[in-house]
Amino acid sequence: LMKADLLGMANQTFPEASKVWQRLRRNSSALRSRTHEGVDEYIAALTNFFKSIVMRSINPGMVKAYQLARTSNSIAVTGKVHRPWRRMASNSRVNHELNVLGQMLRACNEWEKIRPYYFPLSVPNWSPRQILSETEEEELFRKVAGYPEAELAYCVAAITNNTTASGVELRCLKLENAYLRPAGEISEIYIPPEACKNDHRPRKIALNEVALWAIRKVYQRAIKLGCSEPEHYLFPFREKRGKYDPAKPATRWFLRCSWNHLRELSGFHQLRPHDLRHHAITRMLEKGVDGELVNAISGHVSQKMREFYSHQRTKVRYEAAQAIEPEYDIKKLMAEGRRQVRQERRNV
Fold first, then answer.
1. How far is CA 311 from CA 78, 180, 306, 315, in A?
2. Mapping DSSP to helix (H, G, I), strand (E, B) and coil, where does residue 182 land?
3. Exposed/middle/buried for residue 148 (C-beta within 10 Å: 0-12, 13-18, 19+)
4. In this structure, what are the phi and psi dihedrals at residue 130, rounded to the nearest 5 degrees?
5. pLDDT averaged over 10-residue windows placed end to end, the chain, 348 residues
6. How far apart are CA 343 and CA 348, in angstroms?
7. I want to staple 201 with a disulfide (CB 3.0 to 4.6 A). Which of 46, 267, 283, 299 is the partner?
8. d(CA 129, CA 268)
């Protein structure tokens, strides 16, 4: 029956076929929810171009036309230029979208007629982004400290910068994944499988003092927003202004507004949340933390290495977290920043 559904996609329009294809994929336990989120975005972009076209009718010329239209965000129809997408897409993004189209065509046996004539757009070789120097890192946290409009981004930045946990991983954390223990004991967070893009990323991360301070801040925020049960999310879903659903995780864009404030206040206009993950990994290596232990903490490990490091003591992970704890006092910066912001706003 599944095979019949897939083959029947050839005679359906792209939107109809995409629903069939996604419904069958969602029945697979091998694919994570994050994968489906990304594919949904790609299908939405493809639908703006192929919305009334039958799958069997898609040809190499249409694929090439999609590449040109998507990268310029313009389609000329009867002398008028239409802009069906919010912005132009990068070559890498277009390749990902057409990869989804290729999978759909392959599922209904229509890809082979296109494959010899399809050429992905060129993508520059990846290179790591420039990390912050120690002076720049302190400047970032000093300039933004105390501004309430950037406080959420400030806390998330402090967590990522001291744990390697990315924003996407953090938004899927539940209250039960935060092990906040009494003074003198080592606190941890657990990155659950549903927050990860592969089987190597679920892990426990020991919290140094800065990370523990930031986790406590967002935990208190979650309680104020209505989170009370262990299965409630640390960053709950925002339904509308002032109303949150604790049973749902925040969207992928939950940090966008606060992060934009952080960028403007700090002057680091190109800084992305994920850059601080790379920054934390680099600093651990620079501090002499063993490379394999860094892999275990950050989630970049093979199955064999993950099994090996699953037996490492919590104290070892805590010592690794301490190695990247900054010398400046982030709590003091926040307190000083708040006083300064209040003073500035009183003066205005």
1. 66, 21, 9, 12
2. coil
3. exposed
4. -65, 130
5. 71 93 83 80 95 94 95 87 90 95 93 94 69 85 93 95 91 94 93 77 91 96 96 95 93 91 92 87 81 81 46 65 86 90 89
6. 9
7. 299
8. 13
